[in-house]
Amino acid sequence: MTMKDDRQEMDIERLRALLLEARPVAPLPPRFQESVWRRIEKEDAAPNTKPAPLSRLHRWTERLLLPHFALAGLALLLVAGGLTGLVSSADMVKQQAQERYLSAVAPNILH
Amino acid sequence: MRRPLLILVVMLLAGAAAFFGGQRLVAYWCAKHMARPTDDLAWLRLEFRLNDAELARVRQLHEGYLPKCREFCERIDTRKRELQALLVSPTNAPATVEQKLIEVGTVRAQCQAAMLQHFREISQVMPPEQGRRYLVEMQRLTLGFHEQIERTMSPAATDPHGHR
Fold this sequence. Notes:
Number of helices of chain A: 5
Radius of gyration of chain B: 25 Å
Order of helices and strands of chain A: HHHHH
Number of domains of chain B: 2
Order of helices and strands of chain B: HHHHH
Structural class of chain B: mainly alpha
Largest sheet of chain A: none
Structural class of chain A: mainly alpha
Oligomer: heterodimer
Largest sheet of chain B: none
């Protein structure tokens, strides 16, 4: 071991001591642990409060009343209605075609 | 407290109005713009998904059957007119009326037999599955009509002859 090494080690020791002084550890408040446990017990003992059905409904209506939700819902219903109208019209055309065929091949059956 | 319910009701009404409005609007548009079927065989093409070749064969049979159908119709009409004349005549004898009723029934039965034969022929030129479906459907539509009436008039019916 040289003299240079000894000096380096002493510098490191001094630096460590300085760093410890610069970052002091704050002391915990009095009865810290006890208060933490008390808070946990209090949370556990609290009744499980469920939202009332009406308030849930309120939240839902509020959500559905948002312009984009309301417009999308109305548009969807409009399209669904249009599709059912189209299907029933196609059925009506088929019904008319069936009546026409029956009146051609079985006119006496119908009256 | 009642406000969310009111909003919900309004929303449901608006939704129903949108749905039924859309439905009526499209139905109205279709009724105005969709062509009414002008071909007697349009239903066969639509319902039994016949291609052009199958439809051509069906058309040939159909056109061959129509004169026979007309002839039966004329014969039934003639018998019915004769029966009507007998019924209004003050000198009608029950035996003559009965004879005329039998004649009307006989011509009707001959007409139905020819019709069923025609349906069988048509079903044979269709694809097998569609042909079976066609035959069942035509028997239901033509014979089922009378069966329904007869069932209501049978002694087993709870309300015979539709009288209370």
